[in-house]
Amino acid sequence: MKRVLIACILATALCACQRNSAETPAADAAAEATGWLDANGAGETAIVYKDSADSPGFSLSCAQATKSFHVSAPNPVEGAPIDRETATLILGDQAFLVPVTPGAGPTPTLEVETPAIPKLLRAVADSRSARLAFRDGFVETGVDTEGKLLAFSARCGTLTGVAPGP
After folding, report:
1. What's the pTM?
2. Helix (H, G, I), strand (E, B) or coil at 128
3. Residues 6 or more apart in contact with residue 135 via CB below 8 angstroms
4. Phi, psi (rounded to 5 degrees) for 113
5. Over the stretch 65-110, which tens digit does the pLDDT of each residue have?
6. How are strands ordered across the β-sheet holding 130-134?
7. Residue 58 and residue 100: Cα distance in Å, rounded?
């Protein structure tokens, strides 16, 4: 009886180990995703650029309810923005002066929220990277070689009802 009980315990432990090892590669692959990633949610469309799996990423999103365009990026300098401070969002050859606020969370981030306007969505569609310049520093994405920014701009236009334009 004792041997049967020990055999059952060992078999159960072995099955649990095999199940965990089968789940690990998929979890590891998702955690190690880098480059341009889609990150859509309910009522919004988003795209994130990550240099490494553990980086906070540089994200662009559009919200349907507020018809707004949002940027979240690592803070390139020390110190949080003060009231009414601005940053420059550079998309291709277009620059936009945008209000910036500190992000909530353990990693220092900058948050931008501005109306989704035709000129901004056209700049996203035409660009191959994004840069946020704040004070004397900046943070930027890598180059989009897969048309992710163009597709994001189209989704943002559809979601907000704002067509990319001049």
Report:
1. 0.78
2. coil
3. 76, 77, 79
4. -135, 125
5. 999 999 999 999 988 898 889 999 999 999 999 999 998 888 899 9
6. 94-99, 86-91, 130-134, 137-140
7. 14
Range 44-51 contact pairs with CB under 8 angstroms and sequence separation of 24 or more = 44/159, 45/152, 45/155, 45/156, 45/159, 46/152, 47/148, 47/149, 47/152, 49/130, 49/141, 49/142, 51/142
What does each C-alpha distance from 84 to 61, 80, 111, 112, 134 come to in angstroms? 22, 12, 13, 12, 13
What is the C-alpha to C-alpha distance for residues 34 and 79, in angstroms, rounded to an integer?
Answer: 27
Burial call 33-62: b when 16+ CB within 10 Å, e when fewer: eeebeeeeeeebbbbbbbeeeeebbbbbbb
Q: Which two tokens stand for residue 156?
A: 């943002």
Q: Is-contact 88 129, C-beta < 8 A?
A: no
CA Rg, the chain, in Å? Answer: 22
Sorted by sequence, the CB contacts under 8 Å of residue 88 that are 6+ apart come out as: 95, 96, 97, 98, 132, 133, 134
Residue 59 phi/psi, 5-degree rounding, is -115, 145
